[in-house]
């Protein structure tokens, strides 16, 4: 069975082929470790995690690399503000990131290289680009010479002007063109720095990924899949291609795989709007299964709109699946190929909304059919949802039809202006452990006996 994935560079869904039979290499840009991970970081790790699981079901060897950016001005800034060292900040947030991802049942990548462990390789990569004539040294900086590389813009399909706009130019006078980007920059005494042929300094962001990829797979090998959020297409991945293509004559990467952003109530997450949802907070109030299902509810290439109802819906679905799963008494291994349909759905460009629909269909027939129940448990497990794990919320069985009819009755009472009756129904629901929330145009509910 073949896997089809959308390739950003061709803008087409393509049949995936690896350069080596039975082996796949995949690299995904990992976190810059200076603060607590939010749901956007979770999606950027979870989408490749599902692809990783799918690839592992079909290929003997899957080398999945996700880097850790532990040198960055944002880390230095956080260290300065909190009166800590850069290493204290990065080590703290590496641990939190990895704990958060493990809580969400995101598998550990094969390798997680850190920038600070790769400084000699990074310097070596810059030297190769310089030697091949695609970079220049200016005022203690090393810059990539975009005018020398004729395919610049091939991934993002941007024109020259658009790229200059996109570069949010500091038209620094050490640059020949505003499009040129930094491979190496000088560090002052308060910034982390390493000895280099160009003086004490530190690498630019883009070069670290190219250098770590080439160091692991070999300069003359082509990476099979490169992933990341679609906000990284330009300039980060565009620059990675330029660097990789100018240090080696081999093609840099065959498949470019990008996930969409997470919106909160249809707005972009930002500190200034105060709508950043941190994983630590979310994990304190919800089961990992519910968060995972909610994050997979939209197709990975689409933006995911996060709202209260996203989580409530997925949490209700998980409860339903889990109650069914726990009623299973047979030996799950007595059936073959239980995951076949799930694998086939995911093989079509990682169609997780369709996968969730399939789980719901299985849940309908699972009440009467043991094989379908076993398939529900196995298929959910394939996308990292462990239905057999104990959660305090699934002990009691909820009569969903009764809840729905009570909610409808309450809506009618409200429309008729009978608020006394509406409140009475709400209190009755509350006594059953059902929390309701009136959103625009609909009432959603959640089961939480602790409240
Ligand atoms: Zn990267």
Structure description:
- With 451 residues, the chain is an alpha/beta fold.
- It has three domains: 246 residues, 3-Layer(aba) Sandwich (Rossmann fold); 86 residues, Four Helix Bundle (Hemerythrin (Met), subunit A), CATH 1.20.120; 48 residues.
- It is 43% helix and 16% strand.
- The protein is built from 15 helices and 15 strands.
- The strands form five sheets. It has a four-stranded parallel sheet with strand order 4-3-9-10, with helices on one face. Strands 5-6-7-8 form a four-stranded antiparallel sheet. A three-stranded mixed sheet has the order 12-11-13.
- A hairpin with a 2-residue loop joins strand 5 and strand 6.
- Helix 12 packs antiparallel against helix 13.
- The radius of gyration is 25 Å and the shape is globular.
- The mean pLDDT is 92.
- The site of zinc ion has 3 residues, from loops.
The fourth-level CATH homologous superfamily of the largest domain is HUPs
The figure for the number of domains is 3
What CATH architecture label of the largest domain applies?
Answer: 3-Layer(aba) Sandwich
State mean pLDDT (0 to 100 scale).
92
Task: Please report the number of helical segments.
Answer: 15
Specify the structural class.
alpha/beta
From the N-terminal CA to the C-terminal CA, the straight-line distance is: 48 Å
Radius of gyration: 25 Å
Q: Roughly what percent helix?
A: 40-55%
Q: Identify the bound ligands.
A: zinc ion
- Examine the coordinates and then state which fold CATH places here, giving the name of the CATH topology of the largest domain: Rossmann fold
Shape: globular
Catalogue the unreliable spans. Answer: none
Largest sheet: 4 strands, parallel
Q: What proportion strand?
A: 15-25%
Strand line-up in the sheet with most strands: 4-3-9-10
The CATH class of the largest domain, by name, is Alpha Beta
| Secondary structure tally: strands | 15
